[in-house]
Amino acid sequence: MFDLTFLGTAATTPTLERGLPALLVGAPRHRFLIDCGEGTQRQLLRAGTGLRRLGHIFLTHAHLDHVLGLAGLIATLGLLDLRGGLTICGSEQTLRFVAQYLGAIWPAGRAPVPIGFAVLTPGVILEERDFSVCCFPVQHRGTESLGYRFNAAPRRHVDARRMAALGVLEGPIRGALARGEAVTLPDGRRIEPEAVLQPPSPGLSVAVIGDTEEVDTLVAPVAGADLLVIESTFMDADANLAAQRGHLTAGDAGRLAAGAGVGRLILTHLSGRYDPNAVRAEAAELFPNTCVADDFDKFAVTHPARSPASVDLPREDLLQGDGNPAPGV
Ligand SMILES: [Zn+2]
Ligand SMILES: [Zn+2]
Question: What's the pTM?
């Protein structure tokens, strides 16, 4: 249903191993880029995902490590004649900054590809047949930051015992009922889908949060998500520094994941000052199903229900354009 490709997992400054924040989320018929740190266009190429069909870019906030890659990406899209256009989405404050920054390079209407801006307010921002996207407020150093949640449409499963009791056989009739269509059996009986479908169960969901200074207000927006992606810039030993700089510790992220009952926690926005294994271990003490994302890591969140709902893609899927395996997977 959803797949994630981490394009940049560093906090604030790039390192040899990590680019600046950017995450590609694949959904049916769509690809969404969340944040666009400096160098994201090259990370897209290295990830083998290419530059086409980006469509929407969802920004968490306007700090430079999250937006400076926009101009380079737009310039390249123009040079490559990929004119599908982009819609840059974010809070009013975020977009005001981005419009000024891009406007200084390309005065009104002169950008090399059509650029649209969509001001987001918390709530549902996109509804498709099989999934929706909503955004929610995030507290981070006085910015109007947003987090995003991708929700697959609720699913209804066929109750096999009720089907058997009604004498419904496998095959196209069963398929039609599963799709919510009424059917007529060969003996003339009409079966309504409600007679054989179980109550709706929530669809898979992925929550993505950029930078944040606290987790208390985030429990409800990410509750029950199958996958939670969130920053983890500091460790608990530096909690004072984390508070001063408006970021989380790995322990904070673990507490949020446990409190919100998510399926899996993926930490990103990592500082070069820590060993990633130590960062993971600190969060995993509170929430065992935790991993640290490296650049070019891919995750799929798929039906049917598995435990956990997210699976790492097979290693061969991680071979990138240069033929080298993605690091750190
Ligand atoms: Zn940041
Ligand atoms: Zn920030």
Answer: 0.85
